[in-house]
Every structure is written in structure tokens, then in C-alpha cells.
Amino acid sequence: MKIGVPKEIIDGEARVALTPSLVAPLINDGHSVIVQHDAGILASFSNDQYSAAGAKVVATASDLFAAANIILKVQPPTKLEADQFSKESTYVGFLAPLTNADLLRVFVERRVTGFSMEFIPRITRAQSMDVLSSMSTVTGYKSVLLAADRIGKMFPLLMTAAGTVPPATVLILGAGVAGLQAIATAKRLGAKVEAFDPRPAVREQVKSLGAMFIEMELPEDAETEGGYAKELSPEFIKKEMEAIASRLPKVDVVICTAQVFGKRAPILLTADMVKLMRHGSVIVDLAAEQGGNCELTKAGVTVEHAGVSIIGTVNLAATVPVDASQMYARNVINFLRHLYPKGASPDFNDEIIKGACITRNGEITNELVRIALGQGGRK
Ligand code: NAD
């Protein structure tokens, strides 16, 4: 196959879908690799590195789309990009299919086989392809650095000749992949860390990282069979908010990561609760794109309320482009190798391939997406 890697064009996107070190493994698998000039430059990967690894570097995106029959990307393509894809080509990357009906229409018209990396089932067999986990790892890490940069305090306990500096206290709401990484990062910086997550298994994970778990009676049915949080009852959320409110006067930083798959993120911090925090405190809301865990959060901007900064961060993984690209590219190549095992054709009955495939043969094939877009399930 001819694998093409264009330069990302969305503002703020510095990642690239394939890094130079992964070009040779694809060539060894029998593919050829075409990379657009400067595709990796914002992630510190030069054109020379791609050429030296055996890729052909082409000048423009249209040259690339004309030559490639598999396109690897990070961000979903714009309509303008997708219009240039070769007929019957294959796309692998983020696709946000539930909110991208116009783009899917282009895929259907051009008979593009579209794979959405975020739709790869989160089963053990597919862990090495899980972009949600790898990008959440980066996001959790960077969220703590953002808070540390914004707040006018240091994180560690310091005993100096100029006196003792107490450690900062960081509260993490939601301890999934991003939350656990945020805990680990805040601990490494020397902060006192507290966390809460309603899934029972998380308690031990939080404690094993040296953080304090905020104890409260957990709902019995907090988790789905796949290990995800369910949407919790208003009664439980009320109790949770009371527990959070009791911690806020002593907290310097709150990192919000609480999400429920396919739903608006739960509101856990109201404007009145924010007023309980000390002047100069910081909230980083990683759930901003899903509506935010704080009711004051605005995606993409920082809001000030009663002296507290509420950072509504979006696409944070793109601000650590070197490692984020390396992790993302590894997920993508693991998926590609699963798709074309030793040169064979894809098995569209395989759970991973079927789950990630959104469009094929001129139609939307994914049940969840068909239903979400009002096209109805297939018989
Ligand atoms: P996510 O980003 O959807 O949610 C983040 C966290 O928010 C979750 O831990 C969730 O429990 C929590 N949350 C939901 N409601 C909350 C509330 N009211 N208050 C506080 N926290 C709340 O999830 P994620 O981090 O992508 O993944 C969550 C879990 O899924 C992982 O920790 C893991 O157990 C599982 N997982 C399994 C695999 C696999 O391959 N088997 C892969 C990835 C993740």
C-alpha cells in the first residue's frame, strides 16, 4: 500500500501521524511511505529524517493525496482535504464520526474506507492501539504543568533558611487514565494530592500512587461491564459535590477529568463552590470539550472567577507534540499491522476492525454512528 502522511492544518495541531522511526517498519512490511514537506516539523521531525528513513517527501498536500491510497492523520480531515482523497482510498486517524456528518458524506461519495482511531474497542487485545489512553496520558501530565505554571506557589514542601514553604494541595476529580497520570505528575512535583472517582477499583490505584482517596459511600452500579463509569444519580452527584466542597478551602489546584462515555461531562463544581477556593487557586478542566466539570468552564479560554483561574483547556496533547506523536504513531502502526497482517486483506468481521470502521463501500457501516446520525440500525 502507498501510505501518505499530510501536514496537519488545524490551528494548534503540532502532532504528526507517523514519526521517522516508524517509516522503516512499514517499508519492511511491503508498503511505501509518502510524507508531505514539513509534516513533522512542529513535532521536531525534519524532512531529512523522513527521507533518510526511506520515505518520499512531496511538496504539497494535493501531491500526497493523489499518490497515496492510505492516509494517516491525527485530526479529522477538513472537507477540503477529504475532497482530494483518491477514490476508494483508506483513512486512518481521529474522525469524531458522531459529530462529523458532512465529512462522512464525502467519505461515502468517494467510497473511502474510514477508520476512526477513537472507535477502536478498548479491549485488552487492542491496548497497543488505544489512542484515547495514550493521549490521555499526555494530557494528564501536561494539565499539572499548566496549573503549576499558572499558580503563584511552588508544589513541593521546602525547608530553607528563608523559612518553610508548605506543599501545594492538588485535588484530582476523576482518576481514569488522565487523572492517574495527573496524580503521578503532581506527586513527582512534591504536591499533596487528593483524588476521587466513583469506580470502586480506582481507590487502590489512587492510593498506590501515594495520593489520598476521598472516601464516600460508592454507588454499587458505578461501572459498566467494560470498566467505564456510568452516569450517576443526581443524589450521588449531590453527595459528591458536598464532599468536594468540604475540601475546596484547603485546595490550591483542582484538575477535572471526570467523564462519562457518550454523555455531557458531569458538573461537579458550581460557581458558588469555586468561591470556596483561595484567591489565586487554579482549576484545569480537561473535560472542557465535553461541557466541563466546572459550570464556569469555557472551552479554549481561561476564565477568572472570585480570584480563581478556570483553564478550559482543549487539545492539550498537541502541546507535547514529540512524545504525543510518537505514542500516537505507534498506536496507528499497530492498528495498520492488525489491518494488513503480513500483506493479507483486512478481516472486516474482526472485532477491532469492525469497531473502528465507520464508512466502507459507499455507506456508513458503523451501527452506533448510523443510529446517532439518524440513519437507523442495519438488519
Ligand atoms: P474517561 O476519560 O471516560 O473518564 C475519566 C474518569 O472520570 C473515569 O475514571 C471515570 O470513572 C471518571 N468519572 C465519571 N464520573 C465521575 C464523577 N461523577 N466523579 C468523578 N469521576 C468520575 O475514562 P478513561 O480514563 O479513558 O478510562 C477509564 C477506565 O477505562 C480506565 O481507567 C480503565 O479502567 C478502563 N480502560 C480499559 C482499557 C482496556 O483496554 N481494557 C483501556 C482503556 C481504559
Report the helical percentage: 25-40%
- Helix/sheet category: alpha/beta
Distance between the termini: 33 Å
> What oligomeric state do these chains adopt?
single chain
Query: Counting H and I runs of at least 4 residues, what is the number of helices?
Result: 13
Radius of gyration: 22 Å
| Strand element count | 17
Distinct ligands, ions and cofactors found in the model: nicotinamide-adenine-dinucleotide
Q: Regions with pLDDT < 50 over 5+ consecutive residues?
A: none
The neighbouring-strand order within the major sheet is 3-2-1-4-5-6-16-17
Task: Give the overall pLDDT as a whole number.
Answer: 95
User: Could you spell the SSE succession in H and E letters?
Assistant: EHEHEHEHEHEHEEEHEHEHEHEEEHHEEH
Sheet with the most strands, sense and barrel status: 8 strands, mixed
Fraction in beta strands: 15-25%
Morphology = globular
Keywords:
single chain; 379 residues; alpha/beta; 8-stranded mixed sheet; 17% strand
What does this structure look like?
The model has no long low-confidence stretch (mean pLDDT 95). The chain contains 13 helices and 17 strands. The relative contact order is 0.14. It starts with a strand and ends in a 7-residue tail after the last helix. The strands form 3 sheets. Strands 3-2-1-4-5-6-16-17 form an 8-stranded mixed β-sheet. A 7-stranded mixed β-sheet has the order 11-10-9-12-13-15-14, with helices on one face. By secondary structure, it is an alpha/beta fold. Helix 6 (131-150) packs parallel to helix 7 and helix 6 packs antiparallel against helix 11. Bound molecules: nicotinamide-adenine-dinucleotide.
